[in-house]
Amino acid sequence: MDNRRKKQRRASSRRESQEVSSVEWQFINMTEQEEDLIYRMYRLVGDRWDLIAGRIPGRKPEEIERFWIMRHGEGFAAARRHGKYR
């Protein structure tokens, strides 16, 4: 019984320590209607990406959040100025 718990702890700590690299994100293209809806929903509900994605068919909360970060994030401002993310 004790060995099983140790294995579970090791497995869970491995899952928690995995990092996701965001260095090379590809920009997500949205239609004008999708962008408009995202902006309006963000003003209403804030960063509740699951609620916003529920209003846009075929979009996942992660896509909506990534789109928002790439449009409004400070780290991507220089890349936008140089035309990397448009």
Automatic annotation (TrEMBL):
Residues 1-20 are annotated as: Disordered. Residues 31-68 form the Myb-like domain. The keyword Transcription applies. GO terms for cellular component: nucleus. It comes from Ensete ventricosum. Keywords: DNA-binding, Nucleus, Transcription, Transcription regulation. InterPro entries: Homeodomain-like_sf, Myb_TF_plants, SANT/Myb. GO terms for biological process: anatomical structure morphogenesis; cell differentiation; plant epidermis development; regulation of DNA-templated transcription; system development. GO terms for molecular function: transcription cis-regulatory region binding. It is found in: Nucleus. The keyword Nucleus applies. Residues 1-12 have a biased composition (Basic residues). This is Myb-like domain-containing protein. It comes from the Eukaryota. CDD domains: SANT (cd00167).
